[in-house]
Amino acid sequence: MLRSRIIGTGAYAPSKVLTNFDLEKLVDTSDEWIMERTGIRERRIAAEDEATSDLSIKAANNAIKMAGIKPEDIDLIIVGTVTPDMFFPSTASIVQGKIGAKNAVAFDISAACSGFIYAMSIADQFIRNGTYKTALVIGAEVLSKIIDWSDRNTCVIFGDGAGAVILRGDNGKSGILSTHLHTDGSMWDLLYIPGGGSRYPVSHQMIDDKLIYMKMKGNETFKVAVKSLEAVILEAIEHNKMKPSDVNWIIPHQANLRIIQAVVKRLDIPIERVVLNIERYGNTSAASVPMALDEAVRDGRVKKDDVIIFEAFGAGLTWASALIRW
Ligand code: UT7
User: Measured from the CA of 313, which atom of ligand 1 is nearest?
Assistant: First the structure.
């Protein structure tokens, strides 16, 4: 059966580290509160001249190298991001031009923290129906530039980074076995940026009113996230006629350690089978799943034939999972 197999992974995080102690100087918070409530110790922050495409290109080049392909071999590039370089063109177009993937069609997907899994699912459809053979899928964010650094509800949890995979159509047992995407737009206002678009176009007033920054009802988002993630992981397992005990690795969106712990506890999956890097990177939205995957692939945790579940939840609201046989 034709499936999309992940033949390369890559990640990139900016070099500047912002610790919880640094945040103590910006807002009324503490290292203790942040560690206890989120599991985050530090996060990476892009340089002033570093945009989402810059991070994406570095992650993409690492994935291309691991896959052993040339940029011209890529037929499709999809970037999941809510922090594109600019409204248009797409960040994927900029990446396509700069890496020399001249044969690839390229576009972005806006599904917030679920953006990478949404993008991977779209690429998977194109590969399985035979339209394209090789796809570059990227999750990348520079959230530090859309955060209100005086809002302790948001500034302590987010960070910047990028992750990428190369998918290739292959006949065999390995690859993406299924993807599961969901949206509930009735709760869009739990997590959003009000201004800068066609609803509240840029004006001096809206900037003064801080409408250009992310707003989040964290506690309500947290509760919906736990329930939705449990359901969408089970959906992937049951769809493939498996049991939670068949899963070797969960690679979760690193939103909050307590969300991850609550979800795997409900599923009776030991935390040792979860790939975690939230302590070092915080919540990097669409980048978090491919960044954690890259780590687990490169350090040898992920082995051939392992059953892996990706999961994510974010603004939209959107949530998603994917089940992969490595
Ligand atoms: O990425 C995908 C979507 N996003 C998420 O999944 C994020 C989900 N939400 C969260 O991760 C958590 O809700 C937060 C980490 C954002 C907040 O944690 P919480 O346990 O839900 O805290 P809370 O908002 O219920 O606030 C509890 C208390 C409040 O004080 P009082 O009212 O109990 O006196 C807050 O004012 O903690 C206070 N607080 C803080 N204290 C120190 C809120 N933020 C901070 C802070 N430092 N940064």
Answer: 2
